[in-house]
Amino acid sequence: MTKIKMFALMAVAALLLLFPAVALGQQIPPHLSAVTANVDGAPASNGTVVTAWIDGSEVGSGEVTDGVAILIISGDASFTGKTISFKIGNLDSNETDTWEQGGHLDPEITISASSAVEAPTAAPTAVMAAAGPSGKDGDKGDKGNTGSAGAAGPSGKDGADGKDGAGGSTGPAGSDGAAGPAGSDGTAGSAGTAGEAGGGGSGLAIFALILAIVAIAAAGYSIVMGRRTG
C-alpha cells in the first residue's frame, strides 16, 4: 500500500476514534482493515463488494478500488478476539482476521478466493452384508380409497384402412313393374304405290256376276208372286 493510502486510512481511523468519543464518551473504536482482495490470483475488479462476517452475521462491507477495500467493523467488547471471515462478492476467502478494538498494528490484510467449484467427494461405497432369511408375509392391509381419475390422455392416431370385404351373392330378381301409359298414335304412313291395271278378263267376270244376281232376284220375285196368287 502506498504512503498516501496509509495516511488516508490513518486519518479515517483518527476521525472514527475522535467523533464517537466526543459524542458518547464510551463508544468503543471499531476494527479497521485495508483488505487487498484477489480472485483466482488476480486483483478483484473495481466495484466488487468485500464483506466481513462474525458468527454468521455480516458486520461490515466495502467496495474494491484499485484492488483494495476499506472495511470499518464496529462492535463492542464482546467482539474482541473473535474471528472475522471474508467474502469477495459471493466467494468465500481462504483467509480470516481477528477483531481488535481500533484495528491492529498492521491494518493491511490480503485475502484470496477461487471461482472454481470443487467436485464433491464421492461417498464411500457401502458393503452389503449377506441377506438374511425372508420373514413371514404380514397381514394384508385395508384397501385404500380410490384415487381421483386422472386427466384424459391425448387422442390416438387414426388406424390404417382395412382391406375390402369379399363380394356378396346376387340377390333375387325384383317383381315386374306396373305397365306404363299408352303411347300417342304414330303418324300415318305414306300411301302405297298404285296397283297395275287389270286386263279384259276381269271386266267379263264382273258382268257375269251382275247377271247372276239379277237372275236370282227375278227367280225370287216369281216365287213370291206365285204364292200370293195361289
At a glance:
With 230 residues, this protein is α+β, with helices and mostly antiparallel strands.
Describe this structure as you would to a colleague.
By secondary structure, the chain is α+β, with helices and mostly antiparallel strands. The protein has a domain at 3-113: Immunoglobulin-like (Sandwich). Helix content is 23%, strand content 22%. It contains two helices and eight strands; from the N terminus they run αββββββββα. The radius of gyration is 70 Å and the shape is rod-shaped. Mean pLDDT is 75; it is low at 17-25 and 118-127.
Label the overall shape.
rod-shaped
Strand count, sense and barrel status of the largest sheet are: 4 strands, mixed
**What is the tally of beta strands?**
8
Beta fraction: 15-25%
Q: Give unreliable regions as ranges.
A: 17-25, 118-127
Count every helix, treating DSSP H or I runs of 4 or more residues as helices.
Answer: 2
Distance between the termini: 198 Å
Structural class determined from secondary elements:
alpha+beta
* Rg computed from alpha carbons, rounded to a whole number of angstroms: 70 Å
* CATH fold-level label of one domain: Immunoglobulin-like
The helix/strand order is HEEEEEEEEH
Q: Supply the CATH class of one domain.
A: Mainly Beta
CATH architecture of one domain: Sandwich
Mean pLDDT across the residues is 75
What labels describe this entry?
single chain, alpha+beta, four-stranded antiparallel beta sheet, 230 residues, Immunoglobulin-like, four-stranded mixed beta sheet, rod-shaped
